[in-house]
Amino acid sequence: MISRHKLIAVTMITLGLLLAVIGYLSGGKWSIIKDDTGIHVPTKQSLVNNSYTLEAFTSIDVFTDYGDVEIVSGDSYALEVNAIEDADVSYSVKNGTLTVETESKKKNRLSFGFSVNQTPSIKIYVPEKVALNKVVVDSNFGDTTLRGLHYQQLNVISNYGDIRFKHIDGINTEITQSFGDMTLEQFTSNGFVAESEHGDIDIDGTLNGQTTITSSFGDTTLNLQNKKSDLGYELNTDFGDITVDRQEQSSKVSQLVKGDHQLSVSLSHGDLALSLH
């Protein structure tokens, strides 16, 4: 007998495919929108591109229902937006905080679609030497990419999409991901919490302080620069294999080390590989 959750998932996938076909047959190239006025195909066949020069900020809030989000280091404070409609994305800088929000977060709107050329996106540039206080990214559909940033606090909530970090130096990092892979390269954090439902996790960097990683479905690979003698860890997988420095372990393994640097990884279904220096 099909479970309620599986039935809901199949229904949503079928609905998405049906809407995509309707959009194509209606003349839409890549997108169909449901909002307060009903279901319709955008009249424009290409995205609207806008670029903005921003005043200085030290915190970032991004709330989006669709499209990719990038926050990267650059030469100045700037924002680039690729959207379905010109008014789809709003932004403001108040009290040192840049807020970027899609209209679908304010109104009851949902997008389905596909594109052969462009994807809706929000790209934020931060000067390279700026240390951010707090960064929040709340994304429903789309990939999240961070590159070359320094921050005190980061919170990422991603429902559908991959998460990619590169050359990131943060104090506290919290990630909640429903569907998608998580890839963190040259990543340093002094307190890290990650919760993943479906997707692989790959981290290459240094995890200091308290680290907690939980995953329901997917493999986790940790290639850490931490010294083995400085890191205490507890590793567990219900269904899968565990290796530490390429040596096979039991389904539960731990190392007791007194100190501030502690790693806890718990998987329901997936392999776990840990490498230390």
TrEMBL record:
The keyword Transmembrane applies. Keywords: Membrane, Transmembrane, Transmembrane helix. It comes from the Bacteria. The chain crosses the membrane at residues 7-25. Residues 58-271 form the DUF4097 domain. It comes from Lysinibacillus sphaericus OT4b.31. This is DUF4097 domain-containing protein. InterPro entries: Toastrack_DUF4097. It holds the Pfam family DUF4097.
